[in-house]
Amino acid sequence: MICLKNKFTELYLCSFAMIALGFFEIFFNYTEANTTEGSYSGILYLFVGAMLLIFAITSHVKFNTNRKQLERELSKEYDERDDLIEGKAAHFTISILMIVAILMMFLSKWITIPTNTALMIIIVLTLITSTLAKKYYNHFL
Fold it and tell me: Alpha helix locations (H) across 76-114?
């Protein structure tokens, strides 16, 4: 199992990197054209970075309050239930990923979607779907 403190560090670094990337995107697009026309991707980066930061902070606080319960869960041996949860969550995530890819391919005939934005949407949706699917299957299995 991965140590959860490293996970929080990675989440914090990723969220701060997304926020910094958003600021740079907004600043450089504004100084180049003196308009806010190209800063929508920067705003998207800022929004995703802020959401990741909020998620990291709430997860870290929740981890600290439930430390003993999580230590008991982490000390359990890897069993078939965990394997089943991982498999079902992966299958559900792949299904959602295929639906999003087909939907974006369908929409791209009428709407121009930049590649970076499309990949960012796919990555964020996959991350959210995977996390929610693991929590759902962990709760109900």
Answer: 80-107
Q: Indicate yes or no: pTM above 0.85.
A: no
Coil/strand/helix, residue 128: helix
From 109, 107, 103, select the one nearest 125 (Cα to Cα): 103
As a whole number of angstroms, the distance between CA 102 and CA 110 comes to 14
Q: Find, among 133, 94, 99, 101, the residue nearest to 119 by Cα.
A: 101
Q: Which two tokens stand for residue 61?
A: 């606080």
Q: For the chain, what is the largest distance between any 2 Cα atoms, rounded to a whole number of angstroms?
A: 58
* Number of residues that this document lists for the chain: 141
Neighbours of 36 (CB within 10 A): 12
| pLDDT tens per residue across span 13-45 | 888 888 888 888 887 776 555 555 556 778 888
The letter for the amino acid at 85 is I
